[in-house]
Amino acid sequence: MSNSPAVDLWEAQAEALTSYQEPNVPLDILIGESVEIAKFYREFWEPTSAHPGLRLAGDKLPPTTGDELLSLHDAVQQAQTAYHLAIAPREGHQKLLARAAFVLGELEATLEWHFDDGIEDETDQQLRTLSELHSGNTGSSDSLAQAIHDYATLAKPHAQALDGVGGFDSALIDEGLELAVQLGDVGQGPTGGSKEELAALELRNRLAHMLFQRMSLVRRAARFVFRDQPEIVRQATSAYQRRQRAARRRAQAQKAEEV
């Protein structure tokens, strides 16, 4: 038994999973969007004169799903806290996070200033894409790692021009790429970590899988039930994944223009 009621409620089911997959969105995004999906579920469960209700999805969508979403949301948060507490004593971990946040801030600020020359070109589009992808999305080690990697990769070809701009040290670019590797290792799992660290990470990932499963179920049901009302379906979709798709489309369009 843990000191977290929500974790205790779901731990047995999580441990009983024969297989699981980590969600394809950062954990902090998953946690935030799960609350929105729970609100959507409650708002659209019953039919009204303006729209049908999710209850029309039948037995595939149990009436307890809304409560389960909120309970699993709490469980994942509590499990994430337990994991952070397990790895907190690891030497240098907090310093690594602090340094990474500083380097990311320097890269973002310097690139924005340097590229803001009044001329709209490919670099402006690339920077805007990164801003949309990573804005407000660096709350976990893996999302912070991805953000630093992306910004450092964009900055690398411009290292000479960026050096000294506003006191920027171009050595931060290579440091950022190295930090991304180190943070990626932390986000994927504690290499050589203690049994407590590994167990905490495993439980967190299993609970996140269960939460994501229920979120996906509500989204699939919404696409079916509200198939004639796309404006309602959109409320159930992931804003993070929409931004990613938009960024990919822009990148593909840019490549097509270059051909």
Would you spell out the secondary-structure blueprint of this structure?
Blueprint: H1 5-16, H2 27-44, H3 65-87, H4 93-115, H5 122-134, H6 141-155, H7 159-162, H8 171-188, H9 195-225, H10 230-236, H11 239-258
Helix pairs in contact: 1-3, 1-9, 2-3, 2-9, 3-9, 4-6, 4-8, 5-6, 5-11, 6-8, 9-10
Describe it.
By secondary structure, this protein is mostly helical. Helix content is 71%, strand content 0%. It has eleven helices and no strands. The termini are far apart. About 2% of the residues have low confidence.
Output the keywords:
mainly alpha
**Approximate shape:** flat
- Give the SSE order as H and E letters: HHHHHHHHHHH
Total count of domains: 2
Radius of gyration: 21 Å
Q: Any low-confidence stretches, pLDDT <50, length ≥5?
A: 187-192
Largest sheet: none
Which oligomeric state applies?
single chain
Give the fraction of residues assigned to helices. Answer: over 70%
- Structural class based on helices, strands and sheet pairing: mainly alpha
Please provide a brief summary of the model.
This protein is an all-alpha fold. It has helices at residues 5-16, 27-44, 65-87, 93-115, 122-134, 141-155, 159-162, 171-188, 195-225, 230-236, 239-258.
